[in-house]
Write a structure and sequence with these properties.
The protein is mainly β. It has one domain. Strand 3 and strand 4 form a beta hairpin. It is globular, with a radius of gyration of 11 Å. Pfam families: DUF2196. This is DUF2196 domain-containing protein. InterPro entries: DUF2196.
């Protein structure tokens, strides 16, 4: 598992991130990542910072999506 995940302190509302939901198998290749804008940042967690996207989906941040 790579440690390039951002911390909760590095995240801001409105930035676009890729998350996985708590019940999702992070190692599974057939899961589509969920990408969206952060609405609420909760706390750091071993699985990645817990956030709620503006769409209402809650999960753990895996990476920040940089728009090209």
């Amino acid at each position: 598992m790579s440690s390039d995940r951002p911390t909760a302190e590095e995240l801001r509302q409105g930035i676009t991130v890729e998350i996985v939901q708590g019940d999702q198998d992070v190692e599974s290749e057939d899961q589509e990542p969920i990408i969206g804008e952060i609405g609420t940042i909760y706390e750091d967690d071993p699985a990645g910072p817990k956030v709620e996207l503006k769409s209402g989906v809650v999960g753990h941040v895996q990476s920040v999506v940089h728009n090209e």
